[in-house]
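Protocol step 4 of 6: structure prediction from sequence.
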Amino acid sequence: MSAIDTAPGAPVLFTVSGDLLSIVGCQPEFTLDTGDGSPLRSFAPPWGTLLTGRVAHAYDDPGQYTVTVRKATGCPGPLTSEPGDIFDVYDVSETIVVTVRP
């Protein structure tokens, strides 16, 4: 991810995406922390769909904000569908810095 520059009150569109997950027993989810004290935004795509989420957020005050996106499969443990097939269970976070200029 790269850095973002914006102005106070201007909306910033965050788009996150992941993999198609169609494993029974998993509930994938994204969590977005905008870094400015706003409530966390969580969304869980329906089972069997491409994990994608879009959130618009505007920052009121100038400064630098560290935005954290967490992606997780929501699976209870290592999974298999056929003998020898193993699907990764992941829970990863990525960050980006948003600079709001006066």
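Step 5 (inspection) to follow. The mean pLDDT is 80.
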